TrEMBL record:
GO annotations of cellular component type: Dsl1/NZR complex
Domain of life of the organism encoding this protein: Eukaryota
Phylogenetic placement of the source organism: Eukaryota, Metazoa, Chordata, Craniata, Vertebrata
Protein's name in the database: RINT1 protein
InterPro entries: RINT1_Tip20
The gene coding this protein: Rint1
Gene Ontology terms describing biological process: endoplasmic reticulum to Golgi vesicle-mediated transport; regulation of ER to Golgi vesicle-mediated transport; retrograde vesicle-mediated transport, Golgi to endoplasmic reticulum
Amino acid sequence: LNKPEWYLTQVLMWIGNHSKFLDDKIQPILDKAGSSVNAGLEFSRALVMLILEKLAADIPCLLYDDTLFCHLVDEVLLFERELYSVHGYLSSFPSCMHMLSEESCFQRWLTVEKKFALQKMDSMLSSEAAWISQYKDITDVDEMKVPDCAETFMTLLLVITDRYKNLPTASRKLQFLGLQKELIDDFRIRLTQVMKEETRASLGFRYCAILNAVNYIATVLADWADNV
């Protein structure tokens, strides 16, 4: 259960190792017979069906172990990325994302995603470098004077988007968007709390850093507004 990468990598190797044989030897036979079947894709589809069976058996066993469950999700997402980008798998075919979209598994995914995101936010705001810009010494890069915590937070949101963007249904994606909105509101509350501590020094370093953080987040969200 703790090594899903073993069978996921094995399947990718089988697909890669057989592609030349399927293209050179099997596809011409299918073409000659007037079939529209793509040998390589059908081979991939059959192997993915095996993975779906394996996941259906494994997921209930690790649903309540956060570490194992997160590791499985991470490995499945890496597998899917390679399957589509390297091996040309079709989005209309069965995929592991359908398995992760099933109710009990999906709700668990949302829960652990939120848990780890909040932990990340705790650590980024308690870091000594939280209010310092990474690029403070490079003037042409650092026009917005973005504090480290704001940049790390937006990267966190971007990573979450990257993880859920290939979900098969819009309703599931919207649930993840809802999580991101919750995280933005949580971050806003945390910034407000820190700002209240700094009101006596409203021209102080940290107070200005908070204003820069808010400006940066608002600007990036406006840039993302065109991303459906």
